[in-house]
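User: Second chain of the day. Same drill as before.
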Amino acid sequence: MSLRMQSKEPVMARRPIAMKKIREVIRMRYCLNAGIRQIAAACSIGRTTVSEYVERAEAAKLSWPSAGELSDEELQALLFPPERVKRVPARPLPDWNDVRQELSRKGTTLLLLWDEYIKKHPDGYSYSRYARYYREWVSASDLRMRQPHKAGEKLQVDWSGLGIQVVDAATGEVTQASVFVSAMGSSQMIFAKAYQSQELKWWLSAHVDAFEFYGALAEIVVPDNPKTGVISACRYEPTLNPAYADLASHYGIAVVPARVRKPRDKAKVENAVQQVERWILAPLRERTFFSVCEANLAIAELLANLNDKVMKGPKLSRRQLFEEEDKPAMRALPASRYTYAEWKRCKVPPDYHVEVDGHFYSVPFALGGKHVEVRMSIGTVEVFFEGERQAAHKRTLSRRGFTTDPSHMPDKHKAQAKWTPERMIRWAETVGPKAGAFVCALLCGKLHPEHGYRMCMGIIRLEKRFGKGRLELACGRALSLGALSYQSVKSILEKNLEGQPVQQPLPPLPDHENIRGSSYYSEEEPS
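Assistant: Same format as last time:
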């Protein structure tokens, strides 16, 4: 290490080895009347250090040669006298644990607590000294308070970095279940539970389970920035996943994501994750679980022990702090539990029906061409436009077909929708009995008569083009051929086949022992 670097060390650390150079500094200053720069260059020490030695010599009223006649101990005692310890008169101090608990309440400040303290103890410390002692206590306490946490205000959430292995009993496949962790800001009460994955469905289910575990709601939820919950991790205006925002609206909470790469914004849950990994997941590492439910039973047992463990700082457990501080300040849960729902954004096509899992649901026809948000829960399909619900349907399991609300249709389509099977048949009978029989057979051949409405409407249009007489004959020919479709009738009319006799199929051959049949030729010839 160079002398320049040594000169930057504290003076007290240099005392045992610097007495010789200090004597030389004093000699050159008072005997040779040398300047600071000259002394520093000659003694190979810094100018700041030379100035300090000179000032101490002047304060001790030393000169030369008297300084050279002193021993090292005497010279050190004069230049570096022991600092006098200021004795602070004994005054009453509050219990800082009580102060910390009071500060967790809404509206409580350190100045207010000092005012109450000084009223009880008029000879107590000033506010500045009171605040300093409290900060020193916080720094020395095992319970760090990097952020002010009001009771019942914040719930911090995150996924644990460690998972838990689950074995499929049937196949032996091993999967890694994710562990969700949450912690209250004030009491640090921890919730932990395993889920199949970190997908949106399980992310929202974990929040609901956490709320029910605490039995009350905090005002703010502070997550990280997972893609499942936060679409855009903007520092000033983050964009939440619509389903996550829907959950927040249902429970009346605010979701305030932490800043990107700022773990101190959610320091409580970061510590909680560490505690869960250390006291829950690590002890379970050798156990084999055959379902997530089985793993959660073991997690719940160890979690109860963790929350009941007394912490060194406040001398209370997390559960005790939660019951005393957080829970009284939290809101009650709503009457209904949040129902998981997925969202998607889509453009309404011209037929004013939006698609959900292959099935089509109607929206008001005026929304055609506009973008809407579709909320899909287990039992319902809801359509929103600019934040207002425009349509709601009971969700069907069918992956085909249409669900149409008549109020969503334009007047022209409503008139067409008034057709019924009976009306279709009555109209066909006005053309002729064969047309009536054809339409009746057409509708009866469908699983739902509505599926044949379009064919019937097409046949109605053929009347205007070809006339009732020709249409009656064409329906009779198609009926005799078993060709029950709009295209068959149209083809007969376009090819002028309605007046041609129907060729009867040849009768089947009678059974006879000399008729070998196809099975005879399929037998293998003998080798």
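Residues 1-17 have pLDDT under 50 and may be disordered.

User: Great, on to the next one.
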